[in-house]
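dumping this here before i forget
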Amino acid sequence: MILASQSPRRIELMREAGYDFRVIPADIDETPRDGEGPIELVGRLARAKALAVANQHGEAGELVVAADTIVAHDDEVLGKPRDAADARRMLRELSGRTHQVATGVCLAIAGEDAARAVSFVDVTDVTFYPLADAKIDAYVASGEPLDKAGAYGIQGVGGRMLVKKIDGDFYTVVGLPIARVARAIEELERTRTAH
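structure:
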């Protein structure tokens, strides 16, 4: 099995779930297309990553798991902040409001028809407490938001101090809805052995 991601969080989740895999990150163009919404984007990127790694690196019959996660608010994708000021802007925008975190997942088998790849997008709503500027400044000063999409880490201080509630799968926000991934892998294995 190949995990087409070098995300430490995804690697940890796959290991904890008992999977044995190699890590080969995908190198694809992640530019959004005109008129493409966040859900379409994240699904397309996960599929593109899985197929690219399956075609370039996979041994025949090897399973490739790829994922892409985005934070979206009012149909705007909130990527990693450019700097501390950008992180503060994002956190002010999310303060006291609900936003979506979408993780697209694609499972592809190297050497098989791309049409047989299994894809899904899992969406979780995340609601922040209202955040005072002093709280935002202190969080940004910690450095945690600077390399995180949406300027916060759900499994770090951000998740403990900013998040009022989560409606959906916590692990979708971390970057890999692992229980759903495990079920998709089992289903794919079953269909392979049936042929």
